[in-house]
């Protein structure tokens, strides 16, 4: 598992840019960022080098931020490969809280999962023929 930074943001103009500025000034490089929003607030999920330091910098700047354990799985970047992994989760009755992905190159995508109740996925992932990634694998 890897650490993701989850940040609650007011849904105001400039808040995302200001959050990114805090990380930049702390010397933190982001590898992935996803933002989900509602009318009142947004939830930013960030994969970054030195996630503990990144979270500390955000909290010090007044943001509601916390570290969350997530799974990162290497998935072939071709049609149907994610569906096969998700079907393995379904067969094991795994309930996902959320997921997002990003392409690392033309052949590979990284799928990030947060699992309800912290269910262990390592055996399911490897049995399905996929590789669970560590922070080192992602360059952190």
Give me some keywords for this one.
seven-stranded antiparallel β-sheet, alpha+beta, 40% strand, 140 residues, 4 helices, globular
Question: What does the model show?
Answer:
The chain has 140 residues and is an alpha+beta fold. It has helices spanning 15-25, 51-60, 81-91, 122-127, and strands at residues 2-10, 30-37, 41-48, 64-76, 96-103, 108-115, 131-132. Strands 1, 2, 3, 4, 5, 6 and 7 form a 7-stranded antiparallel β-sheet that branches. A hairpin with a 3-residue loop joins strand 2 (30-37) and strand 3 (41-48). The longest helix is centred in the N-terminal third of the chain and has 11 residues, at 15-25. The chain is globular, with a radius of gyration of 16 Å. It starts with a strand and ends in an 8-residue tail after the last strand. The mean pLDDT is 92.
Uncertain segments of ≥5 residues (pLDDT<50)?
A: none
Distance between the termini: 13 Å
Number of E strands:
7
For the sheet with most strands, the description reads: 7 strands, antiparallel
The rounded Rg comes to 16 Å
């Amino acid at each position: 598992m890897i650490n993701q930074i989850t940040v609650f943001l007011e849904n105001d103009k400039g808040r995302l840019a200001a959050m990114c500025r805090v990380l930049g000034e702390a010397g933190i490089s982001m590898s992935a960022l996803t933002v989900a929003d509602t009318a009142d607030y947004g939830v930013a999920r960030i994969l970054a080098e030195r996630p503990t330091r990144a979270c500390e910098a955000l909290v010090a700047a007044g943001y509601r931020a916390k570290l969350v354990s997530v799974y990162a799985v290497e998935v072939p970047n071709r049609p149907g490969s994610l569906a096969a992994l998700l079907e393995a989760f379904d067969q094991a009755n795994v309930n996902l809280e959320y997921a997002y992905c990003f392409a690392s190159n033309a052949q590979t995508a990284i799928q990030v999962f947060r699992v309800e109740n912290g269910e262990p996925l390592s055996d399911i992932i490897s049995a399905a023929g996929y590789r669970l990634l560590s922070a080192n694998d992602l360059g952190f």
